[in-house]
Amino acid sequence: MKVAIILAEGYEEVEAVAPIDVLRRAGIDVLIAGLSKEPVASARNVRIVPDVSIDDLNPDELDLVILPGGAGGVEKLKQDPRVENLIKKMQEKKKLIGAICAAPTALAKFGTLEGKKATVYPALKDEIKPALYVDEKVVEDENVITSQGPGTALLFGLKLVERLLGKEKAKEIASRMLVEYE
């Protein structure tokens, strides 16, 4: 299993690090990809050094791509044609795509949410149309998993583990992290 999370300057720390942590606890290889190989500053200036540049990612080798939220980061993701191209290739191959907080608005811009149920940070629900907004912490529809924000990041990560390795593995990780997960 190989997963990539794409960081752009202004990403939301919890929405990036919580899924990385949960997925790695499950033994999944997570690549942190930046729009370049330079350290990426978060919304609150936490800097993460990416493992790779987005240019190094091959959708044929990935099982899941994650877009974290953070308004500034999401705007940069939306404007980068490499991000759009990667997401569209993942969609064509019916591979998993995850987005949390404001990031589902990028999926909407790329056409990924058309005809799907999805969630987003509640104040942005009109920005994911034509998706059907669902007011739940984590929503999955076919190969797309969306979540609402920092407070839902652990559940989002656990749902991603469930989709990749099964419900029992997600429950095992949740139990060890003292997180309620059904």
UniProtKB/TrEMBL annotation:
Keyword Signal: no
Cellular component, GO, one term: cytoplasm
Pfam family, one: DJ-1_PfpI
KW Repeat (keyword) present: yes
Domain of life of the source: Bacteria
Residue ranges of domain DJ-1/PfpI in the record: 1-162
Keywords carried by this UniProt record: Repeat
Record field: transmembrane: none
Full protein name: 4-methyl-5(B-hydroxyethyl)-thiazole monophosphate biosynthesis
